[in-house]
Structure formats: structure tokens, C-alpha cells
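pinging the channel bc i need a second pair of eyes. not urgent but kinda urgent?? the chain im working w is below, pasted from the shared doc
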Amino acid sequence: MGPRYLFKIINDTNDNYIIDTEGFYSSIGVYDENNNYVEPYLPYPTGGKTAERKDNECYKDYEVVLKNSTSVVLLNLFRYIGEHDLKSNQKYYIKLNSVEFGKKFSSDTGCKEYIKEMEAQGYKVLEGNINAKIPLIP
């Protein structure tokens, strides 16, 4: 499973937005068909400090979502949490719980000046959270 997936974003507002394609704080887990959490047999370390970005590199991580338009954006939504022992005769899914994104997280990892520049041009930082169940094929 790779960490990047394409998402269709529909902006039906009269505002132009920027979205930080790297700016997601993820809380994820693998669950079986009975909604039981599947503990990884080899967990990956979590935590630590998120790498800071330099403002002159931030433009690489942001996508523009223009008002009244639809954009397809490649988002780095998942963080690996470990290796799991999955049975081929069962169904599994990844559950994302309130994955937060927005100005604060993006600013905390750098890009404060980039965000200020884009806001001065009339853009807003897209903010919100995502809750989803995504089928996983072992």
C-alpha cells in the first residue's frame, strides 16, 4: 500500500483554496470484517518531530483548488503503521479517524511565509477532517 492516492475535490464555493498535499495528521488502523482492530505484528515507530520544510520549497507541496471547479489531487494521506498478518479469506479495511488538515498543521511544519503570501493573493487554506473506511485487499 502506497501512501499517496488521488482524490477528487469539488470546490462549489466562491473562494480559491490551497491544500497542503503533505499536511495531514493521520490516525489510522487496519480492521477486519467484524470491525476488530488488527494489531500489526511489526509496528513501525510513530511520533517524533515532523520534518520542517523551507518556505522556498513549499510551493511543491501545495495544490490550488479554484472556486467553482473540480480538481484531482494526489494526497499523502496515509502513514505506514506496521506490517499485518492478513488472511486471504477475510475482508479488511483501513479506518481513518478524524484526519485533520489545515493551516495550523501546515504552519507548524514550515510554510508560514508561503501561506501568508498565498492568503495575500486571496487564497484560503483548505481545512477540515476526513473519516473514512477504505477496503484493503490482502
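so The chain has two helices and eleven strands. and The chain has one domain: 4-136. — does that match what u expected or am i reading it wrong
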